[in-house]
Amino acid sequence: MNAPATILLSALPWVAGWAVHARILHGRLNTARRDPLTGLRTRDGFTRRATALLAATAARLAHAVGRAGVAGRLGGDEFAAVLIDPHGTAADRFAVLARVLARPERFTIDPTQA
Asked: In terms of C-beta density within 10 A (0-12 exposed, 13-18 middle, 19 or more buried), how is residue 100 classed?
């Protein structure tokens, strides 16, 4: 048997052990993010999901405002946008912004974040 194959075979038990260990830890983490009585998310689990929603909203807002304005998060779920309107198109831009922010956010359910 050649040297690379011998090295790979000798590393296999370690890799398998770490894979099992990672799976066990992953399961415990998921359990820790759920309330055992209600099945609802704990504060940590909820915060992780809410953070993704806030980041998605911030990205939409920043994209819609573009370089002609400033977007910011004031706190919690409170955002603000200031548009500089040299061409008199602010009403149109605000209408687009309202539509962009009103669209529901679509998330794939990731069991690691549940």
From this structure: middle
Q: What is the pLDDT of residue 114?
A: 47
In this structure, are residues 58 and 79 in contact, taking their beta carbons and an 8 Å threshold? yes
Domain boundaries, the chain: 33-107
Q: Is the Cβ–Cβ distance between 114 and 33 less than 8 Å?
A: yes
Place of tokens 């955002």: 79
Q: Which residue carries 């055992």 as its tokens?
A: 36
Find the helix or strand (DSSP H, E) in which 8 lies: helix 3-32
Q: 3-class SS at 43?
A: helix
Q: Convert the pLDDT of each residue in 80-101 to its tens digit.
A: 988 888 888 878 878 888 888 8
Q: Which residues contact 48 (CB under 8 A, 6 or more apart)?
A: 33, 113
Quick check: pTM over 0.70? no
